[in-house]
Design a protein that fits this description.
single chain
Amino acid sequence: MIAGLVAGGVVAAPLAATVASRLPGRWLMVAVGLVVLGLSLRGLWQSLAAPS
C-alpha cells in the first residue's frame, strides 16, 4: 500500500510542478477550491443517501 502511494507521488509530482509553473496562481487557487468543494459535496451526498 505504501509503495503505491510512493509510486503515485513520483508520477504526479513532475506533472504538478509543470502545471503549477505554467498557470497563474489565481487559476490554481480556483482549481483547488473547486476540487475541495466537489469532494465535500460528494461526501455530503453520500452521507445523506446512506441508509439509516
